[in-house]
Amino acid sequence: MTVTDGRAESPMVSRAALDASVRLRATALDDAAIHRIRSGPAADGGTAGCYQRLDERVVLHVVRQGRWSINRPGRRGDAVTATSGRFVARYDDRALEFGAGPRTDTTVLILPAGSLHGLLRDGGVCGSAGSPPLRMLTAHLRTVAGLAGDLPPASVAAARDATVELVRGILTDTVDGGEPLLAPALVVAARRVTEELLAGPELSPRTVADRLHVSVRTLHRAFADRGETLMGHVRQRRLDRALADLAGAGLTVGEAAARWGFTDSSHLIRACRGRYGQTPTQYVRALSERG
Questions:
Q1: At how many degrees (to 10) do helices 230-248 and 280-290 cross?
Q2: How remote is the C-alpha of 231 from its chain's centroid?
Q3: How confident is the model at residue 244 (pLDDT cuts 50, 70, 90)?
Q4: HTH araC/xylS-type domain: from which residue to which, for each copy (predicted)?
Q5: d(CA 109, CA 164)
Q6: Under a CB-based contact definition with an 8 Å cutoff, are residues 159 and 151 in contact?
Q7: What is the pTM assigned to this prediction?
C-alpha cells in the first residue's frame, strides 16, 4: 500500500487538472485504489479538469461535502452531478471532464470492472451516501486508508475483495430497487454467464442470479423487458450449439443431445422440430445444401 499527498500522484486525474487549492491522498489496494480529494475555497467557485481514461475500471465517487460533477467532453447535457451526501458510480471507459465546487470533500474508489458486470448502465448510477451499505463502505475505506503501509499482502488482498463485495452489494440494491435502465446490461451479463455454463447440468435461473449477485426476480424481469425468458434463451442456445456440432463436429444426434443438456435424442428432435419444423438431420442437410 502507498499513500501520496499532492497534486500529481493519481492515475485518475491528469497532472494539469488539479490546481494548488486541491489536495489528493491516494491509497493503492492491489488492483484497486482509494482517493481522498479535497478542494479549497477557490475564488473562481471551484476547479475543473479532465480524467485520464482507465480501461475496464469502475469509479465510485462518494461526496461528503460540496459538489462533484462528471461530463463527457462536448456533451454538456450528459453531465452527472453528485452533491453532498450522494454517490455516483460509472464505467471509466472514455475521457471525461470533472468539476469540483469549493470546499468539496470526496472519496473516489477505483475498481476492476470485471467484478461488477451487469450492475451499471452506460451513464452510471447515483444514490444516497447515507444508506447503511454506503456507510459501511465508507467506514471500511477509512479503516483501510488508515492502515496504509501496515497490512501484509494477504490482508491487502482480503481488504480489496471485501471492498468489491461491498460495492457489489450497493449496486445490487440499486438493481433490485427496480432501475429499468439497468436491465439491458443485466441481460448481457446473464447471457455471458449462460455461455460459460451452457453444457453443464447446474445451469438454472438461480445459478445465473447468484453469479450476478441479483435476485431471480430481478433477472426474470430484465429478460421479460425484452420479451423473452432466460431459460428460453438457454434452450435456443443449446439447440444452436447441438446443431452446430451435428454439422461441423460429426456428432450423432444422441451425442449432441447428451453434450448440450437434452434428456435424449428424442428431446433434441422435438426441440428442433418445434423451432425449425425439421428434424436435426433434415436441418443440417438443408443447411449444407444451401451452403
A1: 60
A2: 23
A3: very high
A4: 188-286
A5: 10
A6: yes
A7: 0.56
